[in-house]
């Protein structure tokens, strides 16, 4: 969820934060600014697609989108993602993010712009998104919006095996989940209200809107199913006549 509007990429190098020391351009032996360094291959199969393209996982997408706003150093990206509460939609840790940024740079989707330093702090490398990085980001967004992806959340697994519990316990677990989801919904409604008060255009927090609706649907299903089990409306005792009935369905 982006908590501030995206801004155009600056036409000249800027520091990652207002007031930061200027970025010092790094030059190649020819004296020209370093261009994206194309590597002969990426040495991990987890992010390789057919044709040798780097697969953009959710964290890589979120990171590239922030670089698309302006050049930044990795810690600035991490701080921005934390400030925008993006850990609600992607698994976020500093180490994993820095590793992802390195891989994006190795693949030519980010390029080193220069370094900056402040006081006694070590120099930090500032990266910019490349034209290829922007192209791949846009293509991946289109792909994920257009094509449903088979995901494997844990809750449906538990629901599918819920019949192993006594009926009263199964109903109780769903009731407790309903209460927990109610709490989440209250928090999301509060956040949405604050964003609305700040006049942040809705297009920047449509992810919150989606999660709010899907969480609400799950909450209603849990409450309805718990009530049906408790009322005996769902048979909890009859065994299937064929043990493989479920497998062959």
Characterize the structure shown:
This is Transcriptional regulator. Residues 1-35 are annotated as: Disordered. Pfam families: PadR. With 249 residues, the chain is mostly helical. Among the domains are: 58-146, Orthogonal Bundle (Arc Repressor Mutant, subunit A); 154-231. Helices cover 46% and strands 6% of the residues. It has helices at residues 58-67, 74-83, 94-106, 131-146, 155-160, 167-197, 206-230, 245-248, and strands spanning 24-25, 110-116, 124-129. The chain has a three-stranded antiparallel sheet with strand order 1-2-3. Helix 1 (58-67) packs across helix 3. The longest helix has 31 residues, at 167-197. It starts with 23 loop residues before the first strand and ends with a helix. Mean pLDDT is 82; it is low at 2-51.
């Amino acid at each position: 969820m982006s908590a501030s509007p995206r801004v155009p990429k600056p036409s000249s190098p800027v520091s990652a934060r207002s007031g930061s020391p200027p970025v010092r351009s790094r030059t190649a032996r020819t004296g020209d600014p370093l261009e994206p360094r194309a590597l002969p291959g990426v040495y991990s199969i987890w992010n390789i697609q057919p044709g040798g393209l780097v697969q953009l996982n959710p964290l890589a997408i979120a990171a590239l989108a922030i670089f698309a706003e302006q050049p930044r150093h990795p810690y600035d990206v991490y701080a921005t993602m934390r400030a925008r509460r993006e850990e609600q939609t992607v698994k976020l840790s500093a180490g994993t993010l820095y590793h992802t940024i390195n891989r994006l740079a190795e693949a030519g989707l980010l390029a080193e712009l220069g370094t900056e330093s402040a006081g006694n702090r070590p120099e930090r490398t500032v990266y910019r998104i490349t034209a290829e990085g922007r192209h791949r980001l846009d293509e991946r967004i289109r792909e994920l919006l257009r094509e449903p992806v088979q995901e494997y959340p844990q809750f449906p697994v538990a629901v599918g095996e819920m019949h192993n519990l006594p009926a009263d316990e199964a109903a109780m677990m769903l009731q407790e989940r309903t209460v927990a989801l109610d709490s989440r919904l209250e928090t999301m409604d509060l956040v949405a209200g604050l964003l609305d008060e700040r006049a942040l255009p809705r297009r920047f927090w449509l992810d919150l809107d989606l999660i709010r609706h899907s969480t609400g649907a799950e909450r209603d299903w849990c409450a309805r199913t718990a009530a049906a089990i408790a009322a005996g409306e769902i048979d909890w005792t009859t065994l299937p006549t064929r043990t493989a009935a479920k497998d062959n369905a």
